[in-house]
Design a protein that fits this description.
The protein is an all-alpha fold. It has helices at 3-23, 26-35, 39-48, 51-64, 72-90, 97-116, 124-151, 156-162, 188-194, 202-205, 213-233, 239-271. It folds into 2 domains: 3-51 and 122-271, no CATH class; 67-118, no CATH class.
Amino acid sequence: MKRQAVLPVLTGIAYFGLFLYLSVYDLPFSGYLTAREIRALVISGARIGPLPAFFIPAWCLRALYPDKSGSILIRLTEAGLCIACGWTLVDFESWILSEILLTAGTSLLFYGLLSILPLPQLTERRKRLLWLGIVITAGSFFTVQLMKCLWGRPRFVAILQEGATFREWFQIAGFALRRDFYRSFPSGHTVSASAIFFITFLPDLFEDLPQKPWIYWTASFLFTFLVALSRIMAGMHFITDVMAGFGVYMIWYLALVIRFQIRENEGAAGGNK
């Protein structure tokens, strides 16, 4: 096994052990936190939590294809991701004119941010890092959406409001498109919030930023933890849901980053021969 993979594998084993231990407290812990809901945190988690999964790929595309160097498809994809940001932030649920206008306004705001945020000077290495950000975010997001349909696990609120039967995380219902109340495992908000870990690439993209990895890792963990906590408080998820969502993202992140580092080391070794 490559040395770069040893620590992540050991960490993954420890994380899965913690996951199994905490799964025993799925139901009581969800009831405990839901009863102590912090409304501001719940609303913030629901609105802001998914934003990294949409805005980060949009920024990566703008960095890869600045100005008009990209195709119309690239520009449309950026616009679509910004609309998703606006939709999430407003929590668009009906065709009320005020919601439509507010969603349009916030979408334009996010699209405007793409034009004013700094972009890195592109090198081949930085292009690969930007593509890593896109692939990790998209791959983990769609993996979780597929798992939701496969698992069909009732949310905590479904148990409270509809009398649904609590199901352990390992009880798979079988693939089907289900109502949102039965799409608890894994947490989509948590995997979307985890996309914030892209900021750990920023010191490699911008030389002027502080070259202190712990700053970016700490900020990413804190943001993801608060979003995950808010989803349990809202009664939308159990502990295992949010841990699984984060775990899916980190599997994509670590697997691709390790592969990236191995290729870089092999390239450097080949260049020194």
